[in-house]
Amino acid sequence: MANSYFQDGLTSSNGDGLGTLLSPPASNAASTAPRSNALQNRVTSVLSSSYADLDIRDTLSILDDRQLKNTSEARRNLRLDVQQELIECNGEIVQDFGKVAEQLKRVGTAIQNLNSSCAAMRKHIGAANRETGPMLDEAKSILNDRQQVEAKQQLLDAFKAHFVVSDADLAILTSTAEPVNDAFFRVLTRVKKIHQDSQVLLGTENQRLGLEILEQSSRQLNAAFQKLYRWIQREFKTLDLENPQISTAIRRALRVLAERPSLFQNCLDFFAEARETTMSNNFYAALTGSPVDQDHPVMGKAIELSAHDPLRYVSDMLAWAHAATVSEREALEVLFISEGDEIAKSIQAGIESEPWSRPDEGEDAPVFDGRKALNELVERDLAGVFRQLRQRTDQVIQSHEDATLAYKIANLVSFYGSIFAKLLHGRSVLLEALTPISESAMRSFRSIMRDHVANLHGDLAITPDDLHPPEFFVEALNDLKVLMKSYDTSVITTDRNQRVEGFQPILHEALDPFLTGCENIAKRMRSPDNHIFALNCLMATRSVLRLYAFADRSPELQPRMEEHESELTEAAYTWFLQESGLKELFENVNTTHDLASSYQDPKQLASMAQQLDAFLPTATEDARAFLAQLEDRALARRIIEQAAERFCGGFERVEELIVRADQERSRLVNGEAADDDDEEEQAVLREVFPRTSDEIRVLLTPPPFFLSHSSGVWHFGVQAWIAAISSLSVLFTSRCRASVVFFANCGDTMMHSNIWPQPPARHADKK
């Protein structure tokens, strides 16, 4: 609407609308000139105004909401209408404020009435206070005096109840005629509380009362602790730790007596001496079967009567000592170790209460360790038992000259030492008592082993005829098995390196000297006996050491075994050359020119061929007989196979030279144009020496006789048949057709007997 208004009313000066509006009539042009200038100024100001102003935009929005029409009357009355609306709004506001003023007048009247009432009440209260003031002051003074008297009476009663001990309680605390029971500990606790609280009285101006009570309570406490100390000593004389029902009174008494460290230590010393005597007597009774007294009979047989061998005797003694240590520790834990470390707290309190027990300046205050004190007490109780154990074990070691027994005892003692280490601390006196036993047993073991090795000079001079390990070496291996088993069952650690390292000294004493002796024996033998003997000894050693991983020396023994195996393979190869008669041929024939003399005189080559034919049928069995004294049959087979393979390789080389020599001879005689048939006729050496390398390999390869079992009958396998037939067929000469007929007939027999599966029809002609 506003836009339409300006579009209609404000047009350009050349337009009809604006020209009509702004141009005055022609008759009045002179009189209206100022008015037209003012109107132009207003229009200019309106046109220059920014319609982006918020006020103008709001004004235009209001005009738009009124929906005014753009008429001359509406434009004239617009201002008047707006002013009228403002006057009406102001009138409504004035009426509302008039109502508020009337209400404020009523509130002011009410406040004035309240002020009048309060003033009257203050007058009445002031008059009452003036009349009752003296009486209230007097009553307050009387009440204060009464409260002070009552407080003093309560304080006196509390003081008497807390700091004064009755004669009956004093008799319970100090009289030896009265028992040590709950009433005693109740009175003792009360007196300790009095002694502690009396120190508070020393902080007052008048310290006389505090000093008197402190001195009196100190005398009462000393008398009570002396009574408790004597009572505990009497109880210790009749105390039976084997009885699971230990009196709770003595445990409580020990915790209380710990507040006097000197008295408590005296009780521990007395108890340790008594228990050491008791445990020593019990150990002697367990050994001999003689009871200490009628009240404690010996259960079971005596150790000296039930132990059938020295190791069992030592083991039973150690087992008894271990059981006694465990039971003693458990009993002392029940007796001395309480929840919350009450004894430690009591000892610490006692040290603080005894100035002479405190450390000097610059020294650390000792901290009571209940577990450590318990271990020390157990050690003192069992010291006599371990002294007897050491003496008797040393007697067993010295009276038996047996290395395995000494080593078993050392391992047994070490095993129990590791068990005792879990029960006691690392620097235990009992562990230090076991260590010399183990060391003494090991010294005896080394001494006996060295004496045994020194006495083997006669056995080392004897060479075994069967090349088997000598008797002393077999005995050493058997003893080593016993030692390894003992070590395996006694060593607790699971770390492989530690187990291996721990057993190396034993191998050095129990195996290395005997291996060295066998090596010295082998050095005096001739080849191949020395290698067979050495391999037998090494194989026996390896089989024994492989039983336990910590003793396995395969990496160390393998190079030595491979060296002897290589030497033995060389000896077997030399044997093949000598027995076959081909040694001279293998050594002297390196080129075809070396065979030239055989064409003029083939007798020597024919003799070699005949000796080879005689050797081949039994070559494998003869080779096995050559290595029959080698105990490891698999190793012997491998050596024969390696030597045979080497022999076959040399034979192939000789065969190739013979074939080449015949070919060269044929070309020389008949020329290059000679056909194959002429070459075969001129192959003189091949006819004299007809054996082929394939035939040699078949005859020198041990047949793998695979067997199967069915219906209670053993059958040869297919490969066994093939090997057997091939071995028989090659016994014929290569030129003989009988070998072909023989092999074919055997094949037909195998076909018809269902040993070999029938071939397909298309291959029937190749049967």
UniProtKB/TrEMBL annotation:
Function recorded in the entry: Acts as component of the peripheral membrane COG complex that is involved in intra-Golgi protein trafficking. COG is located at the cis-Golgi, and regulates tethering of retrograde intra-Golgi vesicles and possibly a number of other membrane trafficking events. Acts as a component of the peripheral membrane COG complex that is involved in intra-Golgi protein trafficking. COG is located at the cis-Golgi, and regulates tethering of retrograde intra-Golgi vesicles and possibly a number of other membrane trafficking events.
Domain Conserved oligomeric complex COG6 N-terminal: 63-176
Record keywords: Golgi apparatus, Membrane, Protein transport, Transport
Protein name in UniProt: Conserved oligomeric Golgi complex subunit 6
Cellular localization per UniProt: Golgi apparatus membrane
InterPro entries: COG6, COG6_C, COG6_N
Membrane-topology annotation of the record: Peripheral membrane protein
GO cellular component assignments: Golgi membrane; Golgi transport complex
Organism: Hortaea werneckii
